[in-house]
Amino acid sequence: MNIDIFKEMEKGGFEQIIFNYDKTTGLKAIIAIHDTTLGPALGGCRMWPYETEDEALLDAMRLATGMTYKCAVSDSNFGGGKSVIIGDPNKDKSEALFRAFGRFVQTLGGRYYTGTDLGTTGKDFVYASRESDYLVGLPEEFGGSGNTALPTAYGVYKGIKAAAKAAFGCASLKGRKVAVQGVGKVGQALVDYLKEEDVQVVICDISEDNINKVKEKYPDVEVVDPEKIYDVECDIFSPCARGGIINDDTIPRLKCKIIAGSANNQLLEPKHGEMLHERGILYAPDYVINAGGLIQVADELEFKDAGKRSERVLMKTEAIYDILLKIFTRSKEENIPTSRVADRLAEERIEVIGKLKTNYVKR
Ligand code: NAD
Asked: Are residues 255 and 168 in the same domain?
């Protein structure tokens, strides 16, 4: 490894990084725990054929940091963590591999809860749950809260309305034009909400299958080449595919007033949040607008009784609207990018709640 690990941990404020190797299955996994001020770390497990171990470590660290901020702004009682398994999700999966991973998660005794992310599925964690009590987001038939894409899409829809209210003075989306990049699980559910409100929808995807699913349901939806999506003249651009797509190359091409979508880590670098602010493009910070899925899995951990889960999740996901309005207002008043305001809100909550713990209370 070329990374100076302790230096990176100090720079990023990390608590713990655990390297797991299982000699039976060859599992190579890294668990990064960023900050547990608010509660045990919570964050999915990504499986990816990383070319180097440095790349895997940095990805785990970057994603874990994002979870700290996402938990903090979404009023969740959890800290930030994330894990990565080095391997090809199309070739290297097995029951034993995920059970081995589950055993490593178990060794942390509840300091870290995990579930699906890119490259992993509910079925993988059904295997992991045979060895660990600290899995979330399992399929409903296995006692979990099920598909997180639905609350995520609902939160994104509410967030788009909040952004419309801030940018256009009206939350109604009727007649607006929205360009959705990526119509996978979240993107498709988002298109459903948008079409209900008579929005003019433009989509793109690299998967013909996913495009066809949307076209079958809504023949009037316009389809563009994935590379052309940045040039579409629209009111709102909604990235729902991959991260890093707001960058030096794409920003000058954008012809929208608002960016509001589900993808994680949309800004390639923090400076891109500043560039959007300077250009008057309203950016809904990704970890705020896409917190619906996290809200659902956090609820699973906080309230074992699933009876009123959907109502609680709906209520907290709807609150994304008000959180975003607060961010947009503060950004305007203080003339700073919305991405910086969101970071500050998260940091303020962590600081205040952390200080409460200086008073000893026996529970
Ligand atoms: P998904 O894999 O179901 O869908 C992603 C879609 O994007 C796929 O259809 C894929 O073909 C398409 N895509 C990939 N590269 C593309 C490109 N260059 N141009 C256009 N389309 C492209 O994933 P998802 O669950 O819908 O998640 C979408 C995004 O939202 C991801 O960034 C994910 O990390 C984020 N997110 C998801 C959730 C959740 O609960 N599912 C929660 C928070 C954030």
From this structure: yes
Sequence-separated (6 or more) residues with CB below 8 Å from residue 312: 299, 303
Predicted confidence (pLDDT) per residue in 282-292, tens digit: 999 999 999 99
Q: Would you state the pLDDT for residue 361?
A: 86
Domain that holds residue 21: 5-67+79-142
Tokens of 74: 């979404």
Residue 212 lies in a domain: yes
Q: Dump pLDDT digits (tens) for 108-167.
A: 999 999 998 888 999 999 999 999 999 998 998 998 888 899 999 999 999 999 999 999
Q: Is residue 299 part of a domain?
A: no
Predicted TM-score (pTM) of the model is 0.93
Tell whether 248 is covered by a domain: yes
Q: How many Å lie between the centroid of ligand 1 and the Cα of residue 24?
A: 33
- 220 with 154, same domain: the answer is yes
Helix (H, G, I), strand (E, B) or coil at 42: strand
264 lines ligand 1 (CB under 6 A): yes
CATH of the domain at 179: 3.40.50.720
Nearest residue (CA) to ligand 1, atom 15? 241
Total number of domains in the chain: 2
What's the gap in Å between 293 CA and the centre of ligand 1? Answer: 13
- What is the identity of the amino acid at 274? E
pLDDT band per the 50, 70, 90 thresholds, residue 305: confident
- The single residue of 82, 93, 158, 316 carrying the catalytic annotation is 82
For ligand 1, the distance from its centroid to the CA atom of residue 1, given in whole angstroms, is 30
- How far is it, in rounded angstroms, from Cα 95 to Cα 127? 6
192, 287: one domain:
yes
Residue 96 lies in a domain: yes
Same domain, 230 and 209: yes
For residue 335, the CA-to-ligand 1 centroid distance in Å is 31
Indicate if 255 belongs to the active site. Answer: no
Ligand 1 binding pocket includes 239 (Cβ within 6 Å): no
DSSP-assigned beta bridge partners for residue 20 = 29
- Residues 95, 18, single domain; the answer is yes
Cβ(170) to ligand 1 under 6 A?
Answer: no
Q: Taking all residues of the chain, what is their mean pLDDT, rounded to a whole number?
A: 96
Ligand 1 atom at minimal distance to the Cα of residue 262: 30
Neighbouring-strand partners of residue 30: 19, 84
DSSP 128-142: HTTT-S-B----GGG
